[in-house]
Design a protein that fits this description.
seven-stranded mixed sheet; alpha/beta; Rossmann fold
């Protein structure tokens, strides 16, 4: 079983909707705490650390099929029914595959700048850069790595929380994000695999970041006609940069008592 962060009224006797929140490559489940607390405090949120990430097992295999199986186990164990699935980046690719393989477990999809069907050469380049620049000499170097990329417009307090939660000081004296380098490089290979779209019968909203390149035209054009594709003014870290926008779309697919 994956390590699962749980937010919301899990001890309430009243029925409340369940959200499965799935992070992206190099992420962790605790990234969803702010969104859960501020935007959907009435929902019960399951936010697992994916295999190879943070406090979950780092053991292989690190492929889509295994990660989807891990998510099935989480939903079946905690939700006791279906969940609304929010997936960011890699999490969006996994959400689509979960909906295809186990539609009975997915009531709706909210995909945040989902990444799949990416250019293999780009994935190779990113994987090689990951290996070459995996650790840091200081906390400040790690911070600047984030600020020079997709976290540039994320508020400083959110980045501070990310660093406190997810940056680990190793025995070597160096600092690393708390993920397996091997798993991360494997995941970039998975993201080059062909696109899998969500089934037409499941309500789906895709939030495409205007300043990122991960939502390919092949994916956008292959979405079912029933899916809603919305471009938002954000870089790739959509939930951290514009949580209010994400919360608005999430509340639309949850029952009224989740607000």
């Amino acid at each position: 079983m994956l390590n699962v962060h749980m937010y919301g009224p899990w001890n309430s006797p009243d029925p409340t909707p369940v959200v499965l929140a799935v992070h992206g490559v190099t992420g962790h489940g605790a990234r969803w705490r702010g969104l859960a607390d501020s935007e959907v405090p009435g929902a019960r949120v399951l936010a697992p650390d994916l295999r190879g990430h943070a406090r979950s097992t780092w053991d292989p295999p690190w492929h889509f099929e295994q990660l989807v199986d891990d998510l099935v186990e989480v939903v079946e164990h905690y939700a006791r029914g279906s969940a609304t699935v929010v997936g960011h980046s890699l999490g969006g690719a996994l959400a689509c595959r979960l909906a295809r393989s186990r539609p009975d477990l997915v009531s709706a999809l909210l995909l945040l700048d989902p990444a799949q069907g990416l250019d293999p050469r780009m994935c190779l380049t990113i994987a090689e850069q990951t290996v070459a620049h995996f650790d840091f000499s200081s906390v400040e170097e790690a911070r600047q790595e984030k600020k020079s990329g997709a976290w540039a417009e994320v508020p400083d307090d959110v980045l501070d929380t990310e660093i406190a939660e997810h940056l680990a000081h190793r025995d070597t004296g160096r600092w690393e994000w708390d993920v397996s380098c091997a798993a991360v490089t494997a995941m970039w290979g998975e993201l080059a695999r062909p696109v899998v779209t969500p089934p037409a019968g499941i309500p789906t909203t895709v939030l495409r970041a205007s300043r990122a390149l991960f939502v390919t035209e092949a994916f956008a054009l292959s979405l079912p006609d029933s899916a809603e594709l919305v471009t938002v003014d954000s870089d790739h870290m959509v939930a951290q940069e514009v949580p209010g926008v994400v919360g608005e779309h999430l509340r639309r697919v949850l029952p009224d008592h989740a607000e």
